[in-house]
Structures are given as C-alpha cells and as structure tokens.
C-alpha cells in the first residue's frame, strides 16, 4: 500500500468532464463513466469528482449522473458541488459516494456540515478550499463558486472555522497554479498541513511525478490530487486518460 495517496481530480461540467486552467477555458476531456472505467483498469485507489457548474451556477446536484458514475467505479469516490442540505448528504452516501466535499456550505451554513459530521463521521466530510493570491494586496484568500466570490476571512480565520466544524480532511486547491503544470504551491499546502490536525490534500499545479514527491516532502501533504496529469498526455498535448503506475508511485513515495 502506498504511504501517500495519489488521486485523480476530475471536473464535471454538465454531462461531461472538462479541464480548466486557473479555473478558466474549460477543455472537454471525455465522458465521466468511460473515464472511470479506464481508471478502474489502472487500479486507481480513489477518485475526486467536482461538479464545477453546480458550484458556480448554484445548480442542483445531478444525482442520476452521479449514481451512474458511482456504479461504474470500483474505487471510492469523493464528490463535491452543489451540496446544501442534509438530504443532499443522505442521497449521495446512499448511492455509494464514499466522501462528500463541501466549500461554500462551510461559510454559508456550517451547522449543516457539523450535523452531517455527527451522522456520517468526520472522515466522510471533506473541506475543499479554492485559494488564490489577491491582485492588489498579494495575500492568499479563499474563493467560492468556482473562484467567483472571495471570502473576507484570513487563512488563519478559515483554519479556525474548519477546526470548529471538525472536517476530516482538507483539499487545498491553488487557483493560480491550477492547470499550469508548474508544480504545487508547497508553501500554501504546508501552511495548512502544519496548522491543522487533519490530513491535507494538495491540488493544483502538478506537472510531473517529481512535483508529487516535492509537495509531500516540502509541503507536508498527506495526499496528492492530479488534474491535468490525469487527463492529458502532457502540457499542450491532447487528451489521454492516464495515471502514474503503482510501481512508479511506490518508488517515488514509498510504502507503508
């Protein structure tokens, strides 16, 4: 078993999967169910699926499509996008989703997240934070609704909120790095990893296997999520559903 989890992070836009760069310019990369079948063959251990349209346009969760995707996947799925109520949590877990990711709900209605944690356990409720540096003050700030709304809280205040809510894991997604292949923001990931007691997943910027190793060693990430590396041949090249081989990851990260 790998010492550090490495996970494909897929973006659902309508009925299909896309990949963005800095949350812009979505490129269609394929059908979600077909992609999951390919990841099955690659023996991927876990998968993260974000519905970016549900987040940015406040659309309802596509339960029927999520059910179809879950039925095709042999690995646990973490789903995020449009989750607002306890009934949303119930439906997602009932259809087989392993973990539910929330973002705006952390700030709009944290009590619902707390109640979900009481029912389903902290290990099943994940906080995803989309973060980018502000244009003028050059400080890192959390954004909601696919990068469209800025939260007027410092990162320290956000960490305090997450500790109070009691989420089981935090996905730290750097918007400035997302889709660039330039490597992770290790300082940002380490900031969360060193100031929280829960696992931190690095997302945004992976361009090579060495980037994975670097964010684990220098960013203290507990797990690593891959976007572009999981759906493109390489930077600037065409679509190809792929994933590092288990042997390569074991050599890179070690085993338990």
TrEMBL record:
The keyword DNA-binding does not apply. Its EC number is 4.1.3.-. Keywords: Amino-acid biosynthesis, Histidine biosynthesis, Lyase. PANTHER family: IMIDAZOLE GLYCEROL PHOSPHATE SYNTHASE HISHF, IMIDAZOLE GLYCEROL PHOSPHATE SYNTHASE SUBUNIT HISF/H IGP SYNTHASE SUBUNIT HISF/H. It comes from the Bacteria. GO terms for molecular function: lyase activity. Belongs to the HisA/HisF family. SUPFAM superfamilies: Ribulose-phoshate binding barrel. This is Imidazole glycerol phosphate synthase subunit HisF. The gene is hisF. InterPro entries: Aldolase_TIM, His_biosynth, IGPS_HisA/HisF, RibuloseP-bd_barrel. Pathway: Amino-acid biosynthesis. The keyword ATP-binding does not apply. Pfam families: His_biosynth (PF00977).
